[in-house]
Amino acid sequence: MAKDRKQKNGKHAEPPPPSLHADSEVRRDAVEVATIEDRWRVVGAAKPPGKHKRKYHYIDELVRLQFELIKLQEWVRTKGERVVVVFEGRDAAGKGGVIKRITESLNPRVCRIVALGVPTERERGQWYFQRYVAELPARGEIVLFDRSWYNRAGVEHVMGFCSHAEYKEFLRTCPQFEEMLVRSGIRLIKYWFSVSDEVQEERFIERMHNPIKRWKLSPMDVESRNRWVEYSKAKDAMLKHTDTKFAPWYIVDADDKKSARLNCIAHLLRQFRYQDLVPIEVDLPPRQPDHGYKRPKKSEQHWVPRTYS
Question: Which domains are assigned to the chain?
């Protein structure tokens, strides 16, 4: 235990400063990205996710799934499909980490993230679903909602940001709204990230002491700890009213971040009968001849200083 560790002089060892936590976090993410980029050249063509392997390497599996996401992206773009993926769950459940791994290999013009803030005064006077409708995909697009219209069933209800009548009306009309989306041709997939009380507490403490993640910890997150049971009841009611045949909820066990990312991405890919439509390689044409063109002098332009070389 940490409290039992002592230095040679008999004094308790001091915990590492927050700067070390931050440095470790940045390095870990950088190593993951660099390792993934290196795997692009050696893994080769991937296969759709099948049965779970007992032994696997996280980076290799993530790269394999990202290859498949590129195929899915090109299939959506070429076939003119419209895809909406909703990510909901407890605070610090790892939704952002999954979204990051999905999008980092995709074209932001095809796959985009929607994370709306607090509604404006004007938006509060609109039909509740109106500001979300404006973010729905056009043909050939994938939209990932990092939180969504389900705010009304969760934080707004628990924290008293909406009336009881508005909450009940949401539970009644949400399935109708989603059925309209599905009937219009939108592929709607909904994920709830489930995290245990103990794991959420560990992640909150890490955010408190890690400057890189501290911005993620809001007063609302802290208050959610005081209302854990209320949020649990709200989640249960939400699932009961909105888990439908045409738009079911899929629950992701998110206590382990890495396995949650792989499981969610693999499941997402299995929802589509996509084909390998990745663009073929093209020949690079020769550069246009100069024909007397002279580049302006560097001294006449504002160049960024070479702090690093």
Answer: 54-277 (3.40.50.300)
